[in-house]
């Protein structure tokens, strides 16, 4: 969390320390649109919303009426609120609450069409508890969409060694490899949950002139998953 | 057409305090074909039809409504099939007076010094025509009337842009621009500069534009000896610059003579008879004869000299086949000159700024591509914004706008480069260059597949 507090001020610089997150944005929406097809998306819960990059985008997607963003860092939430206040189209549709989500009482259970956990699971001590918490907020027929990183030698090389230490595309120390979660581990966990199944999974990688592209190898590197209720 | 100026800063302060600032999604500065086409493209597409748009221009657009000409205007442009299709797609083509549009399916181009020839016809491309000649006013009025059909677009004409300033409570480096026009102030999510070669929006964004000047372009509206019902575009490359005659309906034609400033001044100042004589001579006589004629100042003498030379020249040039039909009439007050130049902006995008059309690039008219490049910009920017809106992106974000810049810059740069090289190639008189380029032209004339390929590229 200390890492994110210090990133707060520069969160919205498009070419700053969070630049890869900004470039992930449209890929996240494309994945959601593939996973959800034409099912309704009116209410969204963005867990680990950070400075609100995805939260604001979700508020702009045609049909979305409200987005709640939750994060554990108060300084980052302040940045999120300040940024959202600039854009009237977004301002009235987003709300930011201090987490962790387990401590939040003001949000309605089972009321969200989409609950998002983008780049969150690899930063918490108990990812399975967090997924379960997210499940309690999902409407029947709704979905959880998440993105995280596989715990493989390749992902260490790309996301930590190259990205943080050598190319400095990501601020140093943001990720710790032991917290990475394999795609198979989440799938196994979800398969045991009655009423839930994994509806879509895609791998994702960053190509310098094209941004983040989706591929069909969710077991390597970064990946997206959609869990349907 | 576009008149935008800045008033001194102190005059702005009084107005600023009394004007409430309204939010707008896209503010388009400039109501020329590029600006209006962008407004129509965004307003008619489902992904962007919800955006609040405005178009602002210092000119009085009601003049277009009052335009009821008895003759053809002197400012005409050549539309490629791609541009025409785009205008159809955005619903603007039906508002254009098609009786005043001339499609042409043949081009005859030749070297003024060696007479090497290159002929194109529309069989070389899979289209009904190579291009379409249209008066600029007809085009502008047509797109304007389409834009007027959308309640989501506010049009402010007779409105000089007073100032552009970054919003004071914006995000550092990403401030929404605030524009002041008489009686109104707007805070724009995206500010588009469709405001011509001296673009104030480009200056606000701090974007540099580099290039160089050519000579002068002289335009005129002409009537030919008779209407031979063929629609052919003629262009002769003289050492002083290309001389083009573009077909218009009913035996009329439009002249675009790119030449030196001194020659342009002569063409503007002599009598109608002398002017007609010089145009007819321009397509038929040798450059050395033309140089002599342009050194004269007396209109009657020019008429006599041309008449004598044309009667003694017996190299079998056939009117309507090798050269255009003779000009017999020039429309009153239709002779006008404008400076020719090449300019290219370093970038087309900045945070919350995009440039389209002449604001981004200007080129030599010899290939008839300038306006079409602008329409290509509009198509690209509209597509980028539509995709971004579908993905919930902030359309003013530089991440979005840079995609437009990347899409158009290389294409435009290449075309500007080719046109510039052609201008330079054909301004040389040294015989090795003339021989080489003539040989190249004649070979090209014989290689039909290559000709077809080039024509397809040019009509994109």
From TrEMBL, chain A:
Keywords: Methyltransferase, S-adenosyl-L-methionine, Transferase, Ubiquinone biosynthesis. One of its GO terms (cellular component) is extrinsic component of mitochondrial inner membrane. InterPro entries: Methyltransf_11 (IPR013216), SAM-dependent_MTases_sf (IPR029063), UbiG_MeTrfase (IPR010233). One of its GO terms (biological process) is methylation. GO terms for molecular function: 3-demethylubiquinol 3-O-methyltransferase activity; polyprenyldihydroxybenzoate methyltransferase activity. This is Methyltransferase type 11 domain-containing protein. Pfam families: Methyltransf_11. CDD domains: AdoMet_MTases. The lineage of its organism: Eukaryota, Fungi, Dikarya, Ascomycota, Saccharomycotina. It comes from the Eukaryota.
UniProtKB/TrEMBL annotation, chain B:
Transmembrane segments: none annotated. It catalyses: a 2-methoxy-6-(all-trans-polyprenyl)phenol + 2 reduced [2Fe-2S]-[ferredoxin] + O2 + 2 H(+) = a 2-methoxy-6-(all-trans-polyprenyl)benzene-1,4-diol + 2 oxidized [2Fe-2S]-[ferredoxin] + H2O; a 4-hydroxy-3-(all-trans-polyprenyl)benzoate + 2 reduced [2Fe-2S]-[ferredoxin] + O2 + 2 H(+) = a 3,4-dihydroxy-5-(all-trans-polyprenyl)benzoate + 2 oxidized [2Fe-2S]-[ferredoxin] + H2O. Its cofactor is FAD. One of its GO terms (cellular component) is extrinsic component of mitochondrial inner membrane. Pathway: Cofactor biosynthesis; ubiquinone biosynthesis. It is found in: Mitochondrion inner membrane. It is an enzyme of class 1 (oxidoreductase). Residues 24-250, 327-411 form the FAD-binding domain. It is a peripheral membrane protein. InterPro entries: FAD-bd, FAD/NAD-bd_sf, Ubi_Hdrlase_CS, UbiH/COQ6, UbiH/COQ6_monooxygenase, UbQ_mOase_COQ6. Its EC number is 1.14.15.45, 1.14.15.46. Pfam families: FAD_binding_3 (PF01494). Keywords: FAD, Flavoprotein, Membrane, Mitochondrion, Mitochondrion inner membrane, Monooxygenase, Oxidoreductase, Ubiquinone biosynthesis. Component of a multi-subunit COQ enzyme complex, composed of at least COQ3, COQ4, COQ5, COQ6, COQ7 and COQ9. NCBIfam families: Ubi-OHases. Belongs to the UbiH/COQ6 family. FAD-dependent monooxygenase required for two non-consecutive steps during ubiquinone biosynthesis. Required for the C5-ring hydroxylation during ubiquinone biosynthesis by catalyzing the hydroxylation of 4-hydroxy-3-(all-trans-polyprenyl)benzoic acid to 3,4-dihydroxy-5-(all-trans-polyprenyl)benzoic acid. Also acts downstream of coq4, for the C1-hydroxylation during ubiquinone biosynthesis by catalyzing the hydroxylation of 2-methoxy-6-(all-trans-polyprenyl)phenol to 2-methoxy-6-(all-trans-polyprenyl)benzene-1,4-diol. This is Ubiquinone biosynthesis monooxygenase COQ6, mitochondrial. The lineage of its organism: Eukaryota, Fungi, Dikarya, Ascomycota, Saccharomycotina. The gene is COQ6.
């Amino acid at each position: 969390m200390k890492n994110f507090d210090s990133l707060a001020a520069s969160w919205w610089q498009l070419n700053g320390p969070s630049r890869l997150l900004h470039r992930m944005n449209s890929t996240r929406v494309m994945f959601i649109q593939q996973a959800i097809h034409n099912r309704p998306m009116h209410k969204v819960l963005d867990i680990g919303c950070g400075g609100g990059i995805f939260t604001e985008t979700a508020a702009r997607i045609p049909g979305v009426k409200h987005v709640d963003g939750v994060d554990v860092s108060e300084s980052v939430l302040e940045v999120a609120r300040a940024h959202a206040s600039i854009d009237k189209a977004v301002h009235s549709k987003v709300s930011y609450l201090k987490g962790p989500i387990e401590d939040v009482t003001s949000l309605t259970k089972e009321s969200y069409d989409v609950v998002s956990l983008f780049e969150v699971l690899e930063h918490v001590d108990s990812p399975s508890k967090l997924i379960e918490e997210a499940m309690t907020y999902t409407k029947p027929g709704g979905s959880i969409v998440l993105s995280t990183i596989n715990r493989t030698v390749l992902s260490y090389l790309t996301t930590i060694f190259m990205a943080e230490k050598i190319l400095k595309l990501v601020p140093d120390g943001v990720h710790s490899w032991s917290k990475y979660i394999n795609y198979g581990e989440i799938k196994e966990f979800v398969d045991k949950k009655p009423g839930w199944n994994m509806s879509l999974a895609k791998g994702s990688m960053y190509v310098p002139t094209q941004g983040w592209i989706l591929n069909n190898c969710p077991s390597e590197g970064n990946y997206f998953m959609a869990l349907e209720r | 057409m576009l008149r935008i100026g800045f008033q001194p800063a102190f005059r702005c302060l009084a107005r600023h305090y009394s004007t409430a600032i309204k939010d707008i999604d896209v503010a388009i500065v400039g109501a020329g074909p590029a600006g209006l086409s962008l407004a129509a493209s965004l307003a008619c597409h489902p992904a962007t039809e919800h955006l609040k748009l405005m178009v602002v221009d210092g000119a009085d657009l009601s003049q277009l409504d009052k335009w009821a000409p008895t003759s053809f205007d002197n400012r005409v442009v050549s539309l490629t099939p791609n541009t025409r299709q785009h205008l159809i797609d955005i619903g603007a083509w039906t508002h254009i007076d098609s009786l005043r549009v001339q499609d042409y399916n043949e081009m005859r181009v030749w070297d003024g010094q060696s007479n090497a020839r290159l002929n194109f016809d529309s069989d070389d491309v899979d289209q009904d025509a190579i291009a379409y000649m249209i008066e600029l006013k007809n085009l502008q009025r047509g797109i304007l009337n389409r834009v007027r059909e959308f309640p989501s677009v506010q049009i402010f004409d007779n409105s000089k842009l007073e100032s552009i300033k970054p919003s004071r409570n914006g995000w550092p480096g990403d401030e929404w621009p605030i524009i002041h026009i008489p009686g109104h102030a707007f805070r724009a999510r995206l500010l588009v500069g469709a405001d011509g070669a001296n673009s104030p929006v480009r200056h606000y964004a701090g974007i540099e534009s580099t290039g160089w000047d050519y000579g002068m372009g002289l335009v005129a509206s002409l009537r030919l000896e008779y209407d031979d019902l063929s629609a052919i575009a003629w262009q002769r490359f003289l050492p002083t610059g290309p001389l083009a005659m573009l077909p218009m309906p009913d035996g009329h034609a439009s002249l675009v003579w790119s030449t030196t400033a001194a020659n342009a001044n002569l063409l503007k100042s002599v009598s109608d008879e002398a002017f007609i004589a010089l145009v007819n001579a321009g397509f038929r006589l040798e450059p050395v004869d033309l140089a002599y004629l342009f050194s004269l100042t007396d209109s009657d003498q020019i008429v006599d000299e041309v008449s004598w030379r044309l009667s003694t020249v017996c190299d079998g040039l056939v009117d309507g086949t090798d050269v255009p039909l003779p000009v017999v009439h020039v429309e009153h007050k239709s002779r006008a000159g404008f400076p020719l130049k090449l300019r290219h902006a370093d970038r087309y995008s900045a945070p919350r700024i995009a440039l389209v059309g002449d604001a981004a690039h200007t080129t030599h008219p010899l290939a008839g591509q300038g306006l079409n490049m602008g329409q290509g910009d509009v198509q690209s920017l509209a597509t980028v914004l539509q995709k971004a809106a579908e993905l919930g992106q902030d359309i003013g974000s530089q991440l979005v706008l840079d995609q437009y810049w990347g899409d158009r810059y290389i294409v435009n740069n290449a075309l500007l480069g080719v046109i510039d090289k052609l201008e330079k190639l054909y301004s040389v008189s040294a015989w090795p260059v003339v021989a080489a380029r003539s040989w190249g032209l004649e070979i090209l004339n014989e290689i039909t597949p290559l000709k077809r390929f080039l024509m397809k590229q040019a009509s994109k």
